[in-house]
Amino acid sequence: MHMRTLTMIAAGSLLLGGCGRNTDSVTLAGSTAFQPFAEKLAEEFMAKNPSANITVQGGGSAVGIQSALSGAAQIGMADLVELPAEAQALSRHVVARDGIAVVVNPANAVTNLTLIQIRAIFNGAVKNWSEVGGANAPITVVSREAGSGTRSSFEKIVQGIALTQDAIVQDSNGTIRETVAQDANAVGYLSHGLLNAKIKAVTVAGVACTTAAVVAGTYPLARPVFLLTKGPATGTSKAFIEYVLGAEGQKLITDNGLIAAK
């Protein structure tokens, strides 16, 4: 029997595919927003398929695309409003949808921001919460790193963002959440599926980041989640993607805070 593992490895140490790997072994790499959901899906899939060995790695959507193209991963994970030109060579499977929540510390009195205000805050044009209806306190801008699917989608939808040099740059949705939770003056953005009581999602132009609003198309900051393969998926990769898109996989996704693909 093959040993089954579920591993999180930094982008810089991605394992090269191929070389002596069991044919039932599949590596996923990419989106850190989707990573915790992929881990849960992999655990359930392996429980039902004892010979399967699914490894889940992060690194961001750009890493997911490049890993799928190079063969370093059998499946790339990307959560982008629009895939880059190089990804057009990959087979694409939309497995979920996600809202991008703009989040502040629960102590912050601000409850709503317009897209224009969000742009000005992340550009550094607005530097104090009093300028957008909050307390007289400096704004701490927290953003994802270049190559992040969440950042790329956020900037594409909001438009016109040239990230302020004063921003704190974090390498995952989880670290964005923790930074905002620990700083009363911070603002950031992260996957709707990772909201918790430590942070507060503001409404965007009066619309809350909810499943219903994303499905209805009324919440502006939303993007698809892709699983990407080099050519049509085969073997365990195909079986895993079919599981994710099946009733059980889609229920697991929705139960954990993301939105079903259809």
Question: What report would you give on this structure?
Answer:
This protein is α/β, with parallel strands linked by helices and 262 residues long. It has helices at 35-48, 61-70, 115-123, 149-158, 173-182, 211-216, 235-245, 247-255, and strands at 25-30, 53-59, 75-78, 91-104, 112-113, 140-144, 168-170, 186-191, 200-201, 203-204, 222-229, 259-260. Strands 1, 2, 3, 4, 6, 7, 8, 9, 11 and 12 form a ten-stranded mixed β-sheet that branches. A two-stranded parallel sheet has the order 5-10. Strand 1 (25-30), helix 1 (35-48) and strand 2 form a beta-alpha-beta unit. The protein is elongated and about 60 Å long. The two termini are 36 Å apart.
Order of helices and strands: EHEHEEEHEHEHEEEHEHHE
Structural class: alpha/beta
CATH level 1 name of the largest domain: Alpha Beta
Let me know the largest β-sheet. Answer: 10 strands, mixed
Global morphology: elongated
CATH superfamily of the largest domain: Periplasmic binding protein-like II
Topology-level CATH name of the largest domain: D-Maltodextrin-Binding Protein, domain 2
Distance between the termini: 36 Å
